[in-house]
Amino acid sequence: HVSVIPVTDDIPMAQAALDEAQAIEREVTAYLDGVVGELAAPLDFSQERECGVGDLAADMLRARMDADLAIVGGTQAFTGPLDAGSLRRVTLWDACGSSANPGVVAMSGERLLAIVRRGLDPAFMAEQPRSLRGLARGPLHLSRAEVRDGKLLVGGQLVDPARDYRVAGTDWELEPYGGYVEAEWDLRVQYDMPVIVREAMEEYL
Predict the structure, then answer these.
(1) What's the average pLDDT block by block, 10 residues per block, for the chain (205 residues)?
(2) Pure H helices in 9-107
(3) N or C: which end of the chain has fewer CB within 10 A?
(4) Phi and psi dihedrals of 71, rounded to 5?
(5) Contact status, residue 160 vs residue 150, Cβ threshold 8 Å
(6) What b/e readout covers 48-67, taking b as 16+ CB neighbours within 10 angstroms?
């Protein structure tokens, strides 16, 4: 036998449940208000050009994964700027909502050149994949690498197409679904699981 029991507003809520919810809310508020680092200068955000938060993400990934260089699509890692001064966890999480995992892989200079060319192509940069929540891809940010006079340098040296480089990024840059690499390359990426970008950023800061 099945029956429907009406629930009205005059049924009191369980006080024990209310007390526990309030205790948890206080814990969460204190955790989110925690300071995770100090920024000496503000870091800007842009979908059209290289920006401070994108550079920070690339530097963090290179250091964490002990790589020759790092590549990161700035708008997948960050969606807003960071002000100078004490950085609260909630502020970092609001600006860095990425669920991507840090990774590192060995790849040839030839493939690295192909990724950077694609990542800096204006048409590719302007794309708005659904996973980026309406943002454009923006430029590929590099750490310990730069494009000078149309040529890619890593650690101040021209890239050798035949040499292997240890390249850090996230699954967005290092897996085919991000659009930067080709499936037939069969890259063997090592991931720092289950860490996500904002957690790694906290440790770096």
Answers:
(1) 84 89 93 95 96 97 98 95 97 95 98 97 95 93 96 97 97 97 97 97 96
(2) 15-32, 52-65, 74-77, 89-95
(3) N
(4) -130, 140
(5) no
(6) eebbbbbbbbbbbbbbbbeb
Are 39 and 77 a contacting pair, CB within 8 Å? no
Identity at 37, one-letter amino acid code: G
What CA–CA distances, in Å, run from 152 to 99, 131, 166? Answer: 29, 28, 15
Structure tokens at 118: 């694609």
State how far the Cα of 117 lies from the Cα of 102, in Å rounded to an integer.
22
**What are φ and ψ of residue 47, in 5° steps?**
-90, -10
Token pair for 138: 């923006």
